[in-house]
Design brief:
The complex is a heterodimer. Chain A is α/β, with parallel strands linked by helices. Helix content of chain A is 48%, strand content 14%. Chain A has two domains: 24-144 and 307-374, D-Maltodextrin-Binding Protein, domain 2, CATH 3.40.190; 145-306 and 379-419, D-Maltodextrin-Binding Protein, domain 2 (3-Layer(aba) Sandwich), CATH 3.40.190. Chain A starts with a helix and ends with a helix. Chain B is mainly α. Chain B folds into two domains: 11-60, no CATH class; 70-303, MetI-like fold, CATH 1.10.3720.10. Chain B has helices spanning 5-8, 14-49, 68-74, 77-108, 116-127, 130-140, 147-154, 166-193, 198-206, 211-239, 243-248, 260-270, 274-300. Classes of the chains: A alpha/beta, B mainly alpha.
Chain lengths: 421, 308
């Protein structure tokens, strides 16, 4: 018995030595992604990587459907310093928190002298989002922004123009709904449930009226009129019957499903949904969808929320060198192009937007670049999950009609005040 | 204590000593397992609750803050609103599950020719994971596609905003919890029912008691211990209510259906505030001790003296 243990310990250490002296042996990496970030497309991309790097094998672990659910899982994995994940796909709002918690391996050491040259190639918003306190925390995988999807066929049928302002949107949605006379047709869909997407539902109209959650000095700016704009906007839509009665239970992907089933005139949603509307087998709206920038209160001041997914190496990974190699491949113009064609993921490099093959798959990408370039970031904070929870629960309570605009804004101010001291 | 020692202290024979040693050795695995899975985590929880430990603010370190986070909890309106919600769930779903469970148990105790479909029907909700039950009921109560609103429309009524109105959401969640938990109660009560001898009912019938009198005079009193066991278990799980409201409303609209367990989960896992989350968890532990101590006092009483 004891002899057996000794033998296996010796054997294991010999094996460890063997591994240490021959690093070219098989390398296994594990990458984490959410279910909505198209793991199927990632698998095809990883197959290309494995082909070019014999001996390397990359497994995908697919996690929760929403950004919060993924992060909840990752919080438990990383708080316990688990080494099972090497690379993680994280939401654009997370790098500050990951940097603060020391969960991401800073990439500066790997990038070395190349750092500035490499980072300069990305769209400015993504360069900024991934550098926290001067350190590169992650590299962009794909870009995203919210757009307005509309039913081309219905707008044409009822002689409406694609809207440039919220007032036009409300009027044309009302006209189409009246003309169709279909009780199952909704006017405008966006996220309203207490989830991350509802933060954008609140912030887009705030930005659209020239405001922000915080002012340039990082102080809360909820006293300004702009902070009240979303409440007025959605109240008007609700009164006009353009917003569904159950808006407070709708999550982002539910809005996508409803629009895809032909149940709505307008849907404020992320760019990647284009591919679903056009290519999903169950789509009722194939070739009937148009996509334009989100409206503003005035036609010249449109605004949108920036999204997108970033690749970070976990601080606990035991294969950081190999993981970095994978990162550079996944965050390359070549992979950006592959994703754009296969999944309508917005590229993180300006030049890919002009690529002929990309434009063939997504004709509207030619107008998408300026939207992504002008898209706004949700507040950057190490305590972003708390900021997000405060904004989304209050917006949700307002949409459900359980809080007035004053109560919702008051509660937001009190609770956010404790964070933005 | 000191007066008792001389009585205990008699010389052990070598055989007795080795028996005792063997006994300790055989207890050790159970003790170590318990220490690793219960004592260590609980001790860590209490220790963490006295420290500031926020993973998103590691530059603050983990200083000892004493009772500060308990005070923060007691002055946090969010803590009180989620405690109140939890209390409401307990008040509605514990008696609700016992009443429905008693009905189910009485039904299952009927002399059916084929027993297994009834028993299976009883077991299924219990065997289903909580979060599945939550998701199923979320679809039942969904505004557009849900069968509950479909039924309302069928009867010519207006569809209701089940999951986005605080009162209706509370009702919907209670229905789901009662459906889910009453089968466990029914199983416990069914076991109790089967211990009641048939002869008692036969004697009552001879004495001219009707079915209702038999139920009140025989079934209920004989079932009291089983009902109390069910109540204790149900109350303890009700204090920890998490999965079903999490899946059905995620605490919405606003925070109006959020339970204490959900608030602790949010504070710890979402906000990464381990210190404050631990303090809240200790507070919840205190709440559950208070809530169950009444039952515990009852069970400690001598059963032979437990009159009506």
């Amino acid at each position: 018995m004891r002899k057996g243990i000794v033998a296996s310990v010796v054997g294991a250490s010999l094996m460890a030595l063997g591994l240490a002296t021959t690093p070219a042996e098989a390398q296994n990496l594990r990458i984490f992604t959410g279910g909505q970030q198209r793991p199927d497309v990632m698998r095809k991309i990883l197959d290309v990587f494995q082909e070019r790097n014999p001996g390397m094998k990359v497994d995908i672990e697919v996690g929760g459907a929403t950004s919060e659910q993924q992060q909840q899982y990752l919080n438990t994995v990383l708080a316990s310093r688990d080494a099972s994940l090497d690379v993680v796909l994280i939401d654009v709002i997370r790098p500050a928190q990951w940097a603060a918690a020391n969960w991401a391996e800073p990439l500066d050491g790997f990038l070395g002298a190349e750092k500035d040259a490499v980072m300069a190639k990305y769209l400015p918003a993504y360069r900024a989002a991934n550098i926290v306190n001067g350190k590169v925390i992650a590299l962009p995988y794909f870009a995203d922004a919210q757009f307005l999807y509309y039913r081309k066929d219905l707008l044409e049928k009822h002689k409406q123009q694609p809207p440039k302002t919220w007032a036009e949107l409300q009027a044309s949605a009302g006209a189409v709904m009246k003309g169709e006379g279909n009780a199952n047709l909704q006017g405008f869909l966006t996220a309203g449930a207490p989830i991350e997407g509802t933060v954008c539902t609140y912030l887009v109209p705030v930005w659209g009226s020239g405001g922000d959650l915080t002012d340039s000095g990082g102080k809360l700016a909820l006293g300004a009129d702009a902070a009240k704009a979303p409440f007025k906007l959605y109240a008007d839509m609700k009164t006009a019957g353009v917003l569904p009665a159950n808006i407070a239970e709708i999550v982002t992907d539910r809005a996508r499903q409803m629009f895809q089933a032909g149940g709505a005139v307008y849907n404020m949603n992320w760019a990647f949904n284009w591919n679903r509307f056009q290519n999903d087998a169950d789509s009722q709206v194939k070739d009937k969808v148009g996509v334009i920038p989100l409206p503003g209160f005035t036609a010249d001041r449109q605004s949108t929320c920036i999204g997108g997914w970033q690749l970070a190496i976990t601080a606990f990974s035991k294969n950081k060198e190999a993981a970095y190699k994978l990162l550079r491949f996944l965050s390359s113009p070549e992979v950006s192009k592959m994703q754009a064609i296969a999944a309508s993921h917005l590229p993180v490099f300006a030049e890919v937007y002009a690529d002929a093959d990309v434009l063939k798959a997504n004709p509207w990408f030619k107008d998408a670049l300026p939207v992504v370039q002008s898209a706004r970031s949700r507040p950057v904070s190490a305590r972003y999950t708390e900021v997000s929870e405060i904004v989304r629960t209050n917006m949700n309570a307002y949409l459900a009609g359980t809080k007035t605009a004053e109560q919702a804004l008051g509660d937001m101010t009190t609770r956010l005040g404790a964070i933005y001291r | 204590m000191t007066s008792a020692t001389p009585v205990l202290k008699h010389r052990l024979t070598p055989l007795e000593r080795s028996e005792r040693r063997l006994g300790l050795v055989m207890l050790a695995p159970a003790f170590i397992l318990l220490a690793a899975t219960v004592i260590y985590p609980v001790a860590t929880l209490i220790w963490t609750s006295f420290r500031f430990q926020h993973l998103a603010q590691p530059w603050m370190g983990t200083p000892f803050v004493g009772l500060e986070q308990y005070w923060k909890g007691l002055t946090d309106p969010h803590f009180w609103s989620s405690t109140l919600n939890t209390a409401l769930y307990i008040l509605v779903t514990v008696p609700g599950a016992v009443i429905v469970g008693l009905g189910l148990a009485l039904l299952a105790n009927q002399p059916f020719r084929i027993k297994w479909p009834v028993r299976l029907g009883l077991l299924l909700p219990w065997a289903l994971p909580l979060v599945f039950a939550g998701l199923i009921f979320r679809w039942f109560f969904e505004f557009k596609q849900g069968i509950v609103n479909n039924a309302l429309i069928w009867f010519g009524l207006k569809p209701l905003n089940w999951l986005t109105d605080p009162t209706l959401a509370f009702i919907a969640i209670c229905i789901a919890i009662i459906w889910k938990s009453s089968s466990f109660v029914a199983l416990v009560l069914l076991a109790g029912l089967q211990t009641i001898p048939k002869s008692m009912y036969e004697a009552a019938e001879i004495d001219g008691a009707n079915k209702w009198q038999q139920f009140v005079e025989i079934t209920l009193p004989m079932l009291r211990p089983a009902i109390f066991v069910a109540l204790i278990f149900r109350t303890i799980t009700a204090i920890q209510t998490f999965d079903i409201p999490y899946a059905m409303t995620n605490g919405g609209p606003g925070n109006s259906t959020e339970t204490l367990a959900m608030y602790i989960h949010k504070t710890t896992i979402d906000f990464l505030d381990f210190g404050y989350g631990s303090a809240l968890a200790v507070l919840m532990f205190i709440v559950s001790v208070i809530a169950t101590s009444g039952y515990l006092r009852y069970t400690r009483r001598d059963p032979s003296k437990a009159g009506r």
